[in-house]
C-alpha cells in the first residue's frame, strides 16, 4: 500500500511538474517576443538597418508574383549595368518563411501588410529559438537547466540586437534553425532514432536556406563525431546521428540555388566527408569484430585498415587537387578571414571594411552577454560531471564559438546560445546544490523524504540481487557422503545461513547509507546556502535590468531614423527617408543613382531607383570603380560616372549634426578598395604623415577629391567657420565651386546630399562663353551686373 501511494504521489508530482514547465515555457515565449517590441513602441513599425530593406523588397516581390517568378527574377535595378539574378544569389529561407506567414494570415482573413509581417518575424522566431534552447539543454542536463537556458536566451542582448522588431535579416530565423538542428542531433545521439535523424537533416536544410553560417554546423558536428571516435565513445547511435545528416543533408543543401555544387566542391564541406569515411571504417571494424574470432579479426582489421588508408589517401589527393586549383584554396573570403584574422585586411578590403566583420573589444562581451561571461566557465565544469556525448558536444560548441566570436563581432550571435546553454547548466547545478543543502538542514525536511526512501529501497534491491547472484555461483550439486554426516551438515548450514543473514543486513545498511553520505558531502552550511541563493537572484536581477536597458535603448533605434537628446529636448533626424522620398518624386524612373555600397539596398527599396552597387558586394571591381570615382578629382570622377550612365550622386555627411557613420569616415576604405583594382589610387596620397586629416594640414589630393567636395560644398555657410563636429576641426578648403556637378537637394540636417551630373554640352558652352567674355570684359562689365541671373 505504501509503495503504491508513493508511486501515485510521484506520478502526480511528475505530471504537475510538466504542467508548470509548460506554463513557464509559454511565459518565456511571451517574454522573448515582448522584449523586442521597444522599437515599435518608441519609434514606429519600420524596417531597420540596410540589408533588411533588400529582404523586404524580395518578400514583396514573392507575395505579389509567386514563387516561380521569384526563382527566375532578374533584377535590373541593382548593379547597373550588370544586374543580378535574385533567385540564384539569395538565401531564400527568411523570404519564404515570411511569405508563408503572410499567406497563412491572409488565408485566415487577417489582412496584415507584408511590411508588418516582416517587422514581427524576428520576435516570433526569437520565441521559437528560446523553446529550441530548452529542448537542447534538457537533452544535455535536464528540465531545470533547459528552462534556465531558455530564459537567458530570451533576453540575451547579443541575440536581441539581431532580432528586434524590424530587424528583418537572415539571422532572425537562422539562430532558431541552428539551435534546433543541434537539438535534433543530440536527440538522435541519445535515442538512436532514424526518425529524429531524418528530422535533423531537414532542419539542416532549413538552416542552409536561411544563412551562410550553416557551414558552422557542418563542421562542428563532424568535429564532435571525430572526438567521440578518438575517445572510444563510438556507438551505433553515433553512426545513426551522423551518417544520414551528411548524405541526406548534403543532397538537400545542393538543392538551394545559392549553394548548389558548393555543397560538395568547397573546402568548408570537406571535413564532413572525411569524417564520414572514418566513421564508416570504424563501423565496419566493429561489425567484423562481432562476427569473427580474435585471430581472424586481427587479419581482417589489417586488411580493412590498409584498404581504408588507400581510400583515404585517394580521397585526400582528390581534395588537394581540387583545393590547389582554386586561388583561395577552395575557401571563401569570409571563411579565410575566420581562420586567418589578418587575411581580409591584407587581400580583401571589402570584407574588412564592414564594421561587423571587425574583432570585438572586451567591453562588447560584457555588453552583449553581460554576467553570462562569468557563468560560462562554471557551466563547462558542470558539463564534465558526468561527461556524456551530449555534454561533450556543448563543450565543443562553446569552445569553437568563443574563438569565432573573438575573430568577428558578428559571430557573437553564434556564441550567445552556447553561453546561455552553459550558463543555464551552471545556474541549475548551483541552485540544486544550495537548495539541497537547505533541505537537509531544515528540521521539517531533512528527515523522511521520498527521494531518500527511494534510494534506500533501490539499495536493498541491489543488495538482494547481489546475494542471489553469489548464491547462484555456488555449486549446489555436491553428493552427500553418508547419512551419519547429515546432522553435522545441518549444523554447518545453520551456521552459514546465520552468517549470510548478518552479511546481507550489513550490505543493505552500507548501501542505504552511501547515498546519504554522498549527499551530505555536498551539503553546505545553511547560512552560506541562503546567502549564495540571494546572490544568484541578485545576479539574475542585474542581468534582467541590463537586458531590458539594451533592448529599450541600445538596440531598438532604427538606423534609418536617428534621435539625440540635448538640453532642449529630443531631436529626431529623418534625413534618410527625406532624401529617398525626394529621389522617388523628383527623378525619372530610369535614372541611375551612385553612392557607396552601404546605401544601395535602401535606395532601391525606398527610392525605387537603379543603383550602381549595393550591399551584396559580389563584384569587387564594380565597387572599386565607385571608390575610385569618389577618390578622384572632379573631372575624372565625372567621366567615370558618366560612363556608367549615372545621373545623380548621393553622399552621407554628418559634420553638421555629429553623425559619425558618414562617408568621410568611410572614405579611406573607398581609397583602399579602389586602389586594390586601380593602382593609381594610393592611400599615402590622402594622408599627412600617416594621419587622416581634413583640416588645413590635409594633402592636396584629399582636398581636391570628389568626396571632399561633395561633402563640404557650401558647408562654411552654416556657421561661417566650417567646423566639422565629427572630426572636431575646421575644414581645410572652405570656398570652392563645382564645375562638373550641381547640388540639387540637401536634407534638413545636411545628413544626405544629392548632386546631379552636369551635361557635357553645358560645360562646353560655358568654356566658350568664358573665353569670349574675357575679350569683352572691360566694355560690358557694367551692363552684365544689371543682367545677372539672380539664381546664380
UniProtKB/TrEMBL annotation:
It is an enzyme of class 2 (transferase). It is found in: Endoplasmic reticulum membrane. The keyword Glycoprotein applies. Keywords: Endoplasmic reticulum, Glycoprotein, Glycosyltransferase, Magnesium, Manganese, Membrane, Metal-binding, Transferase, Transmembrane, Transmembrane helix. Residues 451-511, 762-792 are annotated as: Disordered. It comes from the Eukaryota. It catalyses: a di-trans,poly-cis-dolichyl diphosphooligosaccharide + L-asparaginyl-[protein] = N(4)-(oligosaccharide-(1->4)-N-acetyl-beta-D-glucosaminyl-(1->4)-N-acetyl-beta-D-glucosaminyl)-L-asparaginyl-[protein] + a di-trans,poly-cis-dolichyl diphosphate + H(+). GO terms for molecular function: dolichyl-diphosphooligosaccharide-protein glycotransferase activity; metal ion binding. Residues 762-773 have a biased composition (Basic residues). It is a multi-pass membrane protein. Its EC number is 2.4.99.18. The chain crosses the membrane at residues 12-35, 85-105, 117-136, 142-160, 172-197, 203-227, 239-264, 270-288, 300-324, 365-384, 391-409, 415-434, 521-545. GO terms for cellular component: endoplasmic reticulum membrane. Its cofactor is Mg(2+); Mn(2+). InterPro entries: Oligo_trans_STT3, STT3_N. Signal peptide: none annotated. It holds the Pfam family STT3. Residues 455-467 have a biased composition (Polar residues). The keyword Oxidoreductase does not apply. Belongs to the STT3 family. This is dolichyl-diphosphooligosaccharide--protein glycotransferase.
Amino acid at each position: 500500500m505504501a509503495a503504491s501511494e508513493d508511486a501515485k504521489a510521484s506520478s502526480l508530482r511528475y505530471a504537475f511538474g510538466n504542467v508548470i514547465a509548460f506554463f513557464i515555457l509559454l511565459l518565456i515565449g511571451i517574454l522573448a517576443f515582448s522584449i523586442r517590441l521597444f522599437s515599435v513602441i518608441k519609434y514606429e513599425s519600420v524596417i531597420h538597418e540596410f540589408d533588411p530593406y533588400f529582404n523586404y523588397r524580395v518578400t514583396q516581390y514573392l507575395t505579389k508574383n509567386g514563387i516561380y517568378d521569384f526563382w527566375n527574377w532578374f533584377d535590373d535595378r541593382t548593379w547597373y549595368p550588370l544586374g543580378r539574378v535574385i533567385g540564384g544569389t539569395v538565401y531564400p529561407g527568411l523570404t519564404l518563411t515570411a511569405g508563408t506567414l503572410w499567406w497563412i494570415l491572409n488565408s485566415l482573413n487577417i489582412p496584415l501588410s507584408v511590411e508588418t509581417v516582416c517587422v514581427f518575424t524576428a520576435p516570433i522566431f526569437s520565441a521559437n529559438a528560446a523553446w529550441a534552447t530548452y529542448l537542447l539543454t534538457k537533452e544535455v542536463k535536464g528540465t531545470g537547466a533547459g528552462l534556465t537556458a531558455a530564459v537567458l536566451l530570451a533576453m540575451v542582448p547579443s541575440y536581441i540586437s539581431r532580432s528586434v522588431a524590424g530587424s528583418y535579416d537572415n539571422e532572425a530565423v537562422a539562430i532558431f534553425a541552428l539551435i534546433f538542428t543541434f537539438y535534433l542531433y543530440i536527440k538522435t545521439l541519445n535515442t538512436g532514432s532514424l526518425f529524429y535523424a531524418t528530422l535533423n537533416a531537414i532542419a539542416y536544410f532549413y538552416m542552409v536556406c536561411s544563412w551562410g553560417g550553416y557551414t558552422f554546423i557542418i563542421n562542428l558536428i563532424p568535429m564532435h563525431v571525430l572526438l567521440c571516435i578518438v575517445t572510444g565513445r563510438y556507438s551505433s547511435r553515433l553512426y545513426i546521428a551522423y551518417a544520414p545528416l551528411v548524405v541526406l543533408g548534403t543532397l538537400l543543401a545542393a538543392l538551394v540555388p545559392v549553394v548548389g555544387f558548393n555543397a560538395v566542391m568547397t573546402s568548408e564541406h570537406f571535413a564532413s566527408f572525411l569524417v564520414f569515411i572514418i566513421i564508416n571504417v570504424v563501423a565496419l571494424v566493429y561489425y567484423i569484430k562481432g562476427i569473427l574470432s580474435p585471430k581472424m579479426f586481427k587479419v581482417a582489421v589489417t586488411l580493412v585498415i590498409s584498404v581504408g588508408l588507400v581510400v583515404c589517401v585517394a580521397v585526400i589527393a582528390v581534395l588537394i587537387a581540387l583545393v590547389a586549383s582554386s586561388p583561395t584554396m577552395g575557401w571563401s573570403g569570409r571563411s579565410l578571414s575566420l581562420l586567418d584574422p589578418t587575411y581580409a585586411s591584407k587581400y580583401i578590403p571589402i570584407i574588412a571594411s564592414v564594421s561587423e566583420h571587425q574583432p570585438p573589444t572586451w567591453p562588447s562581451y560584457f555588453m552583449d552577454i553581460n554576467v553570462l561571461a562569468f557563468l560560462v566557465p562554471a557551466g563547462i565544469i558542470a558539463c564534465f560531471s558526468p561527461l556524456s556525448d551530449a555534454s561533450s558536444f556543448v563543450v565543443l560548441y562553446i569552445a569553437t564559438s568563443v574563438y569565432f566570436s573573438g575573430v568577428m563581432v558578428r559571430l557573437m550571435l553564434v556564441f550567445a546560445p552556447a553561453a546561455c546553454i552553459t550558463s543555464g547548466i551552471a545556474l541549475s547545478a548551483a541552485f540544486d546544490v544550495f537548495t539541497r543543502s537547505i533541505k537537509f538542514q531544515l528540521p521539517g525536511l531533512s528527515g523522511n523524504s521520498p527521494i531518500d526512501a527511494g534510494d534506500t529501497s533501490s539499495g536493498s534491491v541491489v543488495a538482494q540481487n547481489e546475494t542471489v547472484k553469489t548464491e547462484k555461483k555456488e555449486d549446489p550439486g555436491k553428493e552427500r557422503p553418508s547419512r551419519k554426516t547429515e546432522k553435522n551438515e545441518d549444523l554447518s548450514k545453520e551456521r552459514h545461513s546465520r552468517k549470510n543473514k548478518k552479511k546481507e543486513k550489513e550490505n543493505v545498511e552500507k548501501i542505504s547509507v552511501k547515498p546519504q553520505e554522498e549527499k551530505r558531502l555536498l551539503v553546505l552550511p545553511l547560512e552560506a546556502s541562503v546567502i549564495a541563493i540571494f546572490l544568484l537572484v541578485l545576479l539574475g536581477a542585474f542581468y534582467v535590468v541590463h537586458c531590458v536597458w539594451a533592448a529599450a535603448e541600445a538596440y531598438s533605434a532604427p538606423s534609418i531614423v536617428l534621435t539625440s537628446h540635448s538640453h532642449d529636448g529630443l531631436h529626431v533626424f529623418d534625413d534618410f527617408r527625406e532624401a529617398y522620398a525626394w529621389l522617388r518624386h523628383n527623378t525619372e524612373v530610369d535614372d541611375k543613382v551612385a553612392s557607396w555600397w552601404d546605401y544601395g539596398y535602401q535606395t532601391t527599396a525606398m527610392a525605387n531607383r537603379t543603383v550602381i552597387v549595393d550591399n551584396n558586394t559580389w563584384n569587387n571591381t564594380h565597387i572599386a570603380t565607385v571608390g575610385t570615382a569618389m577618390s578622384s578629382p572632379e573631372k575624372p570622377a565625372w567621366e567615370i560616372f558618366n560612363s556608367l550612365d549615372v545621373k545623380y550622386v548621393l553622399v552621407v555627411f554628418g559634420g553638421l549634426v555629429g553623425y559619425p557613420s558618414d562617408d568621410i569616415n568611410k572614405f579611406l576604405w573607398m581609397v583602399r578598395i579602389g586602389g586594390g583594382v586601380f593602382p593609381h589610387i594610393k592611400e599615402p596620397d590622402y594622408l599627412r604623415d600617416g594621419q587622416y586629416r581634413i583640416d588645413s594640414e590635409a594633402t592636396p589630393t584629399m582636398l581636391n577629391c570628389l568626396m571632399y567636395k561633395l561633402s563640404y560644398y557650401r558647408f562654411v555657410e552654416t556657421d561661417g567657420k566650417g567646423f566639422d563636429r565629427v572630426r572636431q576641426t575646421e575644414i581645410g578648403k572652405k570656398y570652392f565651386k563645382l564645375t562638373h556637378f550641381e547640388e540639387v537637394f540637401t536634407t534638413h540636417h545636411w545628413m544626405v546630399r544629392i548632386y546631379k551630373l552636369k551635361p557635357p554640352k553645358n560645360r562646353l558652352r560655358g568654356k566658350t562663353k568664358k573665353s569670349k567674355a574675357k575679350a569683352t570684359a572691360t566694355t560690358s562689365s557694367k551692363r552684365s551686373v544689371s543682367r545677372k541671373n539672380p539664381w546664380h
